[in-house]
Write a structure and sequence with these properties.
Blueprint (H helix, E strand, L loop, with lengths): L1 H10 L5 E3 L6 E3 L10 H14 L1 E4 L6 H12 L22 E4 L13 H7 L15 E10 L7 E5 H6 L3 H7 L3 E4 L1 H7 L6 H5 L4 E4 L1 E2 L8 E2 L5 E4 L4 H15 L5 E4 L6 E5 L3 E5 L10 E8 L8
Length: about 300
């Protein structure tokens, strides 16, 4: 007990953050998140999340339950209504642990035709976790358990800077608009279809196109490939607007990547970033990642 208390004291005020991009993303100094419990350090991580939107923690060694426990300490309530949950049994025994992997419960690489693989490939399109739920996701925490011997990066887009770079006419146009988000829609356009029973469990949700926060003075665009229509507009015009905004947000100046190494844990704020997985040879090499996402329990009301 004395050793644990000494470790907690050592972590207080000891975490520093090194920027990875000129507008967002930072790497934290070494800290053992599985043992991190003092409120001062947790508050420092929350403040850095508000500043950078994406944080990288290297050299972690977490069990599934340690990952869940850290997420709860950092941000409270967990997201459990994932699309993967409607497809089959969770091999970790907890629906809060989303299995972002290309392996079966037996540890074998999924076949190219496996529904779980085809569903997972859709993570390669730009998206925001759990935007198809209400409340939506706030912090996602993705942990690298098994990394392939080839590059399998994750890219992130800075949605606050993307909003700030819009012209004033466009800002005025989109302020007050709401978008409907549906993972059934985004999976369909990728060639994957849920059964009627599965789709009924994923009805979608409506969120403002521009998010404003109590913990940040900077508004953010709130987009994802799950966004399929503007509620106040006819569907064709709304989808064209969403397409134009998406193209704006993924310009290279707003995008940075993370190259995974074993033991990395990356946290991102879904309210102010988008992300996508980059392709790799997933029918040859194993990659096992687990994600825990917290809920945005103080959502901005729709208009």
């Amino acid at each position: 007990m004395a050793d644990l208390m000494a470790e907690q004291v050592r972590y207080q005020h000891a975490i520093s953050f090194t920027p990875l991009h000129r507008t967002f993303m930072a790497q934290a100094s070494h800290v053992d998140l599985g043992r991190l419990t003092d409120e001062s350090s947790l508050a420092a991580i929350r403040a850095a999340m508000t500043q950078y939107g994406v944080l990288v923690f290297k050299g972690q060694n977490l069990t599934g339950q340690q990952q869940v426990a850290f997420a709860q300490r950092l941000d409270g309530q967990l997201h459990r209504k994932t699309s993967a949950a409607v497809l089959g049994k969770n091999r970790y025994g907890d629906e809060a642990i989303t299995d972002i992997s290309n392996v079966s419960g037996d540890g074998d690489i999924l076949s190219a035709e496996d529904r779980r693989r085809i569903n997972g490939i859709s993570n390669r399109i730009w998206h925001t976790d759990a935007s198809f739920e209400s409340p939506a996701g706030r912090y996602s925490m993705l942990y690298a358990r098994t990394i392939p011997p080839v590059r399998a990066d994750t890219e992130f887009a800075d949605m606050r800077t993307a909003y700030e770079k819009l012209d004033e006419q466009t800002k005025e146009l989109i302020d007050g608009l709401d978008a409907h988000h549906s993972i059934v829609y985004s999976r369909h356009i990728m060639g994957f279809d849920f059964s009627p029973e599965e789709a009924a469990r994923l009805p979608g949700a409506v969120h403002p196109l521009v998010r404003r926060f109590t913990d940040s003075t900077r508004p953010s665009l709130y987009l994802a490939s799950h966004a399929n229509r503007i509620m106040q507009w006819p569907i064709p015009e709304g989808r064209l607007l969403l397409k134009d905004l998406m193209e704006h947000c993924i310009q290279r100046e707003f995008v940075h990547f993370h190259e995974w190494t074993q033991g990395d844990l990356v946290i991102w704020d879904n309210r102010m970033t988008m992300h996508r997985a980059r392709p790799f040879d997933d029918v040859t090499y194993k990659r096992e990642l687990t994600r825990v996402t917290t809920l945005d329990i103080d959502p901005v009301p729709v208009h």
